[in-house]
Amino acid sequence: MVVMISSTRNLKRAVLYNEKKVAKGQAVLLEAGYFLEDSSRLSVDARILRLQRRMELNYRSKASVMLFSLNFARTDQLSAQDMVQITSEFLKKIGFENQPYLLYEHLDTGHRHAHVVSTLIRADGSRINEGNISIHNIKVACRQLEEQFELTKNSMIRTRSKRMPEPEKLLNGKPQTITVIESAVSQVLEKFYFSSFTEFNALLSQFGVKAMTGRIGSRLREHQGVIYGLITAEGAKKSAPIKASRLQPQPTLARLQQFFTVGRQHQQKHLTHLKTALDLRLLSEDSFSLRTLAGALDRLGVKMHARAQQGTIALTYLDNRSRCAFDQSLLGERYSLRQLDARCENSVFNAPGSKKLDVSLNQKEISEKNVSVPSTAKVFHSDKFRDVLLHELFSALPDQSSAPWELRRSAKKKKKRAIHL
């Protein structure tokens, strides 16, 4: 049993994602837990309204929609009633007892799996402690359910918010090329924010897909057309190009402009946090070289995507923590590849006799011979202590009350002034 969890602020998008699959015959609504009516009598608006009213009890909580994906092995012979019972037991074990939820079984993959949409807000307006849905507690719940229902033992948990999805190693035509490209483009448009075509392409490269507008003076560039194709890990083409109009999301250049506008607003919110993370890593022992710096940022969820631009190498930062892509021009000249190299101890550009740069930003290719491993005491003091301070500075204050702030303030007792006669 494999569990995948994620959180979001957009309740409507989470529910409609499953409802669209139901309309296509690719999913089935199995259960509407703790709803006032049977699931067959509920409309789509009624399902969304029930969860939305529960979330409105705590307006200070933002990302209060929880999404669970319960995946089972192909050898598990489960009926629809078994999946309902397993899901109900799973939610109770992680602290979601008496919480309204929607359970969908998806039929578009080779293994049995179900998607759950629920909320962290209780009936009294309080928020469920996220410590109950930690990796340890979910693993324990999976092991108990595997023994109780005699499931295939494969207890693990995957979170979608810490790491950037790795490029899928897919063969051309298996599955179909158009299906792979549609899946990659849909994920980038739904889950990430970007403000330029370069940033959009950097996000697509993580899934082995590339978008092209044609050469200067070509007919494709003249008519503002976009084509998509599969690429290898080295960036070489591995499939015939497909027009944007043939893809299901229709990611034409005119439609991408709408995403550019929305992406600029989100980039401004998280630009300072990215600069701070880069500066802290440059001040620590991780700044020995570009490779060690890239490896340290990758562990934080930030990837450095290099590309050729007018005879030089330009960077695009993929921040998976904020789901934003940043071109180096947004951060400033201090965060370009040459400036980052100058701020590292082992500089490549400034080394004597170095004429060109041959750097791979892949953490797996870090050479142990050229990297000096710092002592454990220094790493503990410089990284852990600094991260704790930053967490305390930037973390929001928890809301322990279900009453609005204005009502809590007015409920305080006022001191009566003494009247002297």
Description:
With 421 residues, the protein is an alpha+beta fold. The chain has three domains: 2-159, BirA Bifunctional Protein, domain 2, CATH 3.30.930; 177-259, no CATH class; 264-378, no CATH class. It contains 13 helices and twelve strands. The chain has helices at 11-23, 44-55, 80-93, 135-148, 177-191, 197-205, 219-222, 253-283, 290-300, 328-331, 337-343, 376-394, 405-410, and strands at residues 2-8, 27-33, 65-71, 101-106, 113-119, 156-159, 209-212, 227-230, 242-243, 302-309, 312-319, 324-327. Strands 2-4-5-3-1-6 form a six-stranded mixed sheet, sandwiched between helices. Helix 1 (11-23) runs antiparallel to helix 2 (44-55) and helix 3 (80-93) packs antiparallel against helix 4 (135-148). The chain is globular.
